Amino acid sequence: MALAIFDLDNTLLGGDSDHAWGEFLVEQQLVDVEYYRQKNDEFYRQYCEGGLDIDAYLRFALQPLKGKTPAELAPLHQQFMQSHIQPLMLPKAIALIEKHRAAGDRLLIITATNSFITTPIAKALGIEELMASDAELIQGQYTGAPSGIPCFQEGKVVRLKEWLQHNKESLVGSYFYSDSHNDLPLLKQVETPVAVDPDDRLRAYAEQHNWQILSLR
């Protein structure tokens, strides 16, 4: 049994769930519309360019959750799933997941997007194991702050190594699918790195190193 690891945004999904959540909050007028839209777009641009301050971004993205419980936010997230995530679902991504499931591989999503946003998405994709940036909860309420090591760039490698040790797993025969050059640290760790609809920097690196390039669009 091999480990099949998937990035989420712009890999298994035909868009970015983190950015889409910000757009959803703006559309619902649950945040300061102009300020939040501008900051949301700015952080996404920084991510695409490889210069994202992940701690600053997580504090921005998690602030609207502050003082609320997961149960209180569940109906809002369900609405978000229907309006913004369902249209991003990719039949070819579902087929790829099922191919690995049929092979008996262990499936894992590893994403920088916070676990509040991504846990229901992973469940909708039929993947039970998720590694994501974590939101701090105190006495059952979100504080608006991140918790632990962000699951981003080198942080994905650190988090995965901890997970491998805890689960007595290895990277023998492993796959990792990602669209982003931000994931190069982890792509370099697995036996079979696959660039999925890659950004320009990842495509260039994949071509240079003869990695598989795949489109799920």
Q: Estimate what percentage of residues fall within beta strands.
A: 15-25%
Shape: globular
Counted up, domains total 1
Helix content: 40-55%
Largest sheet, in brief, is: 7 strands, mixed
CATH topology: Rossmann fold
Are there runs of 5+ residues with pLDDT below 50, and where?
none
Structural class: alpha/beta
CATH-defined architecture: 3-Layer(aba) Sandwich
Distance between the termini: 27 Å
- The tally of helices reads 10
Strands of the widest sheet, in order across it, are 4-3-2-1-5-6-7
- Which CATH class? Alpha Beta
Please report the total strand number as a whole number. 7
Overall pLDDT level: 96
- Integer-rounded radius of gyration: 17 Å
Name given to the CATH homologous superfamily = HAD superfamily/HAD-like
Topology order in helix (H) and strand (E) letters: EHHHHHHEHEEHEHEHE
List the helices and strands and how they pair.
Layout: E1 3-6, H1 8-12, H2 17-27, H3 33-49, H4 54-62, H5 70-85, H6 91-102, E2 106-114, H7 115-124, E3 129-138, E4 141-147, H8 154-166, E5 175-178, H9 184-187, E6 192-196, H10 200-208, E7 212-214
Parallel strand pairs: 1-2, 1-5, 2-3, 5-6, 6-7
Antiparallel strand pairs: 3-4
Helix pairs in contact: 2-3, 5-7
